[in-house]
Amino acid sequence: MSLFINNKVEKTFFELSGIRRRLILLLFLAGFVTLILRAFYLQSLDKKFLQSKGNATSTRVISLYADRGKITDRNGDILAISSPVESVWVNPPNVKITKDQKLELEDILKLSANEVDQKLLNNKKEFIYLKRQISPEDARRLQALKIPGVFFQKEFKRFYPAADIAANLVGFTNLDNIGQEGIELSQNKFLSGKLGSKKVIKDRAGKIVDDLQEVKLPQDGHDIKLSIDARIQYLTYRELAKSIDIHKAKAGSAIVLDAKTGEVLAMANLPSYNPNNFREGGGPTRNRAVTDVFEPGSTIKPFTVSSALEAGILNPSSLVEISSGLMKIGSATIHDAHTDGSKPFMTVSEVIAKSSNVGAARIGLMQTPKNLWSTLNKVGFGMQTEAGFPGEASGRLRDYKNWGKVDQATISFGHGINLTLLQLAQSYTVFANDGEMKPVTLFKKDEISMGTKVFSKQTARLMVEMMEQVVEEGTGGNAKIIGYRVAGKTGTAEKIGANGVYEKNKNIGSFVGLAPVSNPRIIMAVMIDEPSLGSHYGGAVAAPVFSSVMADVMKILKIPQDIKTKNKVMPQDNKDSKETI
Question: 230-276+283-556 — its CATH code?
């Protein structure tokens, strides 16, 4: 009996289990069919639901910005630095803004109602900038408005503490922090570093709801230390501006070099611009001292004479016929700017001191064209200095094989040749280093570079003595510095017009000098473009800039004085000063 009952229960249990299994299977099949039908419905008949869910969150890769490297002067003073800012962007279709919020937004971003409307209304783009690079304070004010669809992006903005004083040299970056001019352009890759990235999930409001941890860290840019001394840069810019203002000149440039290392201690240009607000209107961005060429005039004469000295053709006391200041070569006439008409001869030293064109032409013609050309070529004329500045001009020195007699004569006193002010400044390192020309650089150096031997030590020192007479007794009297012996050369040249003809009312006045003569440490080259008020000669417009700047440079660098009795009287602006053209 008992056994019978147990078998019946067991049989019933197995029968119920079979039904249950079939029922469960049917339920699974029904659910699966339901899911398929639902998926089909959502994907084919009702897409909006999935699209709305997909739009609610999205996976995005956001950029992690690298900090651009600093640009400093040789002493570590900042010339360019990046500061964190915010850029404001919107997703126009999602922007929900009240009238009051819109008015506050326009006020904070300094945008007109029309500008805001153009970006927000009837705009189907999902990303558009309202304004780039606003201050953190303005960003906080705007964030407090909590306007849906308005987002913020961290960026870096470049600031230039020296402003227009070093603008043409340092340059500037665009809104994306990419160098556009100057050192910012030439060293852009080194300064920029590399962007990083991070993958995140954002909701419809633009908020990050999940970080997927796929991070590529940014690599900050490298700092750059220039050879510039900010103190000397300021002095140079200030004195250059004074001369341009006094003589109502079109433009001007000046360069200060360390004579031993070839480092550029200052490079100033006017007109300039302020790179901090350049987009609101600025002046010329080019660095005239490196990109613009001009005929150097009489500043070339020391090389013409040195070439002849080196060849053994003459010596400082040799007499040179100047024909009372006039010389004819075929149909061409060469003349001196001033002569009393009674002196048919000058010594070589006097040709330099009094800046005689005729004397320089005769000395040039005493040499073979190849010899003179070779000298000018060795000191870098007609080729770039490779100082590291973008857009550097090479200048023009025609091959001697194409020279005629007139060409050789005029090139001897600086006509028919053009160069940059940087090339001219570099060439005078020959006289400061016993005949060795030093390479120039815009970057701080820790050691002295080897130069190129051009002249013998004797030739270089003889020329320095002759150029000292230019300052003591000749056309460069305004370049004197109390307590220091100065050597240099003035230059004046007429500019060539668009028709290829020299224009008598447009001149360039220049001066290149070095100090102290006993141990040359500093070289300075000055060029004033189209002075229109008062004298236009280099001795009057450029030499005073040299004197004012170099007097302070000697103090800043603590360079010992080398005389005690000479140059006791401060140089005056000699309005009657003349020199050859």
Answer: 3.40.710.10
| Catalytic positions | 298
Mean pLDDT across the stretch 115-128?
A: 79
- Position 437 scores a pLDDT of 97
Residue 217, helix vs strand vs coil: coil
Quote the Cα angle for 570-573-574, to 5°.
110
| Spatial CB neighbours of 70, under 8 Å, sequence gap ≥ 6 | 78, 80, 81, 82, 223, 224
Which element (helix H / strand E) includes 72?
A: strand 71-72
Token reading at 107: 């006020």
Say how far apart CA 534 and CA 541 lie, in whole Å: 9
pLDDT, one tens digit per residue, over 194-253 is 877 666 565 555 555 455 555 677 788 999 999 999 999 999 999 999 999 999 999 999
Cβ partners under 8 Å of residue 270, min gap 6: 237, 240, 241, 244, 251, 252, 253
Q: What would the CATH number be for the domain defined by 61-225? A: 3.90.1310.10
Q: Which of 432, 374, 421 is nearest to 401 (CA)?
A: 374
Please check whether residue 180 is in contact with residue 171, taking contact to mean a CB–CB distance below 8 angstroms: yes
Mapped onto helix, strand or coil, the DSSP state of residue 202 is: strand
Mean pLDDT of 326-355: 85
Name the nearest CA neighbour of 250 among 207, 202, 222, 292. 292
How far are the Cα atoms of 49, 68, 254, 379, 504 from residue 137, in angstroms, in the given order?
40, 22, 40, 55, 57
- Mapped onto helix, strand or coil, the DSSP state of residue 98 is coil
Residue with tokens 């490196």: 290
CA distance 534 to 555: 31
Angle between helices 301-310 and 357-365 (to 10 degrees): 40
- Cα gap 471→579, rounded to integer Å: 12
Task: Identify the CA nearest to 454 among candidates 348, 365, 381.
Answer: 381
Rounded to 5, what percent of the chain is helix, strand, coil? 40, 25, 35
E strands in 75-230: 78-90, 128-134, 150-159, 196-203, 208-216, 224-225
DSSP structural state of residue 547 = H
pLDDT of residue 580: 41
Q: How far apart are CA 308 and CA 109, in angstroms?
A: 68
Tokens at 231, concatenated: 């103190």
